[in-house]
Amino acid sequence: QGDLQKKLSQIVSRSGFDAKDIGISLRSVDDAEAELFGFGSTQKMVPASLTKIFTAGATLAHFPPGHKLV
């Protein structure tokens, strides 16, 4: 488990994102209370799935039906 945490921490640090913009919580399938890896996991953030909904809505409102993004 320590090796996994080390590798994931390296990936996060090389991502180029500001640490305050990243929140990761990797949980065990067998025990959801067991956090296998956490990085900013206690920060309150807007879930990415909600952000995608707003982005899609804004895109649909801006472009006419049938418009293709190329």
Characteristic key phrases:
70 residues; alpha+beta; two-stranded antiparallel ribbon; elongated
Topology diagram in text:
Blueprint lengths: L1 H13 L9 E4 L7 E5 L8 H15 L8
Antiparallel strand pairs: 1-2
Could you explain how this protein is built, in words?
This protein has 70 residues and is an alpha+beta fold. It has two helices and two strands, in the order αββα. The chain has a two-stranded antiparallel ribbon. Strand 1 and strand 2 form a beta hairpin. The relative contact order is 0.13.
Give the radius of gyration: 17 Å
What string, H for helix and E for strand, traces the elements in order? Answer: HEEH
Q: Main sheet: which strands, in order across?
A: 1-2
* Number of helices in the DSSP assignment: 2
The largest β sheet comes out as: 2 strands, antiparallel
What is the residue-averaged pLDDT? 84
What sort of overall outline do the alpha carbons produce when their principal axes are compared?
Answer: elongated
Strand content: 5-15%
Model regions low in confidence, pLDDT < 50 over at least 5 residues:
none
> How far is the first residue's CA from the last residue's CA?
43 Å
Brief account:
By secondary structure, the chain is an alpha+beta fold.
